[in-house]
Amino acid sequence: MLDETLVSEVLGQARRGGASFAELYVERWRRRAVRLLSGEVKEATSGIEYGAGLRLFYGTEVVYGYTNDLSPEGLLEVSETLVRLKGQAGQVDQAGRGGLDFRKAVAQGLHAPVVPLSARDKRYRLERLLEAEAGARVGPEIVQVQTQLLEWEQEVLVANSVGAWCEARRVRTRLYVTAIAQGEGGLQTGVAGPGLSVGLELFDRYPPAEVGRKAGLQALTNLRAKPAPAGPMPVVIGNGFGGVIFHEALGHLLETTSVARKTSVLADRLGEKVAADCVTYIDDGTIPHGWGSSEFDDEGRPTERTVLIENGVLKSYMVDRWGSLLTGYRPTGSGRRQDYTFAPTSRMRNTFIAPGNTPKEKLFEGVEFGLYAADLGGGQVLPGSGEYNFAVKEGYIIRHGRVEEPVRGAMLVGKGPESIKRIVAVSDDLEMGPGMCGSLSGSLPVEVGQPHLLISEIVVGGQA
Fold first, then answer.
1. Per residue in 57-106, pLDDT tens?
2. In CATH, which of 3.40.190.10, 3.10.310.10, 3.30.2290.10, 3.40.50.11810 is domain 117-156+168-225?
3. Which region, left, alpha or beta, applies to residue 385 given φ > 0 means left and ψ of -120 to 50 means alpha?
4. What is the DSSP string of 339-391?
5. Measuring CA to CA, which of 32, 33, 133, 340 is 20 to 30 A from 328?
């Protein structure tokens, strides 16, 4: 994407100016979106972004700048500006003089698409969205359906002053369906939105009509649901996107973004028992075609499978370069950013509770009265403590060990570090669900996941 000599000159100028480490990140984005509302095209957009970000370290202090002028003059101006901003701090060594001998690494296409985005025309995409809408109209109560297709292509180059040079191409595709039902229960919504690091073969893995049908059935279920009860009770949380609770209320506490600053209640607790014995919690950037997968992170390090909690014991954090400098922990290939306008920080990739050995049906046995949170929606989390509240998109009452009538309006309220200690049993039906996660380095594609699991007690906010 850029000439090696130019990259070497930019990084060398920063090192000669006193930076102890310099990193150049270059990317080219192409994003497309098509959205239909009740069969009519409401949005059809395509855009290209091209730019670079330069990060300089002065010990553990960091300065960052970016530009969309990738000419030699534009890039050298950013480097010169950052050096002037920081002054002549730091000690210059010979690595800052002369050309750099880069060790080049190119992604091998582990997550490459089978059906490239360029293989199909606009009509093909429109037909798939119409299929999804038809699938969502599962009854006359469905009064509105929105379908959306998102496509991303990203080329990345990361080079730094210790000679790393990494190039990668990332492709992601997501289909999103929202169905609205109207009846005696008012207006109720159902949502389905599969996404992977794939091309248009996403439609083979997730047939659009089936995705639409899932959204439509959820809307109908919520339409006939009664108000949820309130109070502390046992809760069975569904697999797949049910893992969003622990992503938000536990995962962020294990990123060195918060651990290094001592703002996480789980900081400095490696080797301690922090969860129930049946809990193993993993962040894995290597899952083939995972929504949050990549072969290299945005600092140019190979991604990896990081076991964060094993059988209840805290084993690791998610560590980026800056976090490693402050804590001494080994980097885990977790440095991520939204785009070149953000400096990278430690972030989750595909994070999930590993499968257990309890059959799903056994989770409900012995629950006299509780809630089955089959699907979760959005929520809020208090950084540092992991206090959360999450909406239940699809819920049912558990009565005498049986799943019975649907309920709506339920909220799950608790603290991640406490809830993970109250997990009684974990099933073996692991599923993953895509989402977007916002933090210091912007909004990123992540997967969350878990099997069905039973928590002995969570406060359910509903209608008493």
1. 999 999 999 999 999 999 999 999 999 988 654 444 434 445 788 999 98
2. 3.30.2290.10
3. alpha
4. STTS--EE--SEEEEPP-SS-HHHHHTT-SEEEEEEEEEEEEEETTTTEEEEE
5. 340
142 falls in which pLDDT band (50, 70, 90)?
A: very high
Token couple for 356: 């257990």
Q: What is the pLDDT of residues 374-384, one digit of tens each?
A: 999 888 888 88
Number of Cβ within a 10 Å radius of residue 43: 10
* Topology agreement, domain 4-106 and domain 117-156+168-225: yes
CA distance 359 to 399: 18
How far is it, in rounded angstroms, from Cα 92 to Cα 16?
6
- Output the CA angle 165-443-47, nearest 5 degrees: 75
Residues 6+ apart with CB under 8 A from 107: 166, 167, 168, 169, 294, 295, 296
> What is the number of other CB atoms lying within 10 angstroms of the CB of residue 39?
12
- What is the value of pTM for the model shown? 0.95
The backbone torsions φ and ψ at residue 325, rounded to the nearest 5 degrees and listed phi first, read -65, -40
CA distances from 244 to 153, 238, 369 (A): 26, 11, 24
Amino acid at 389: N
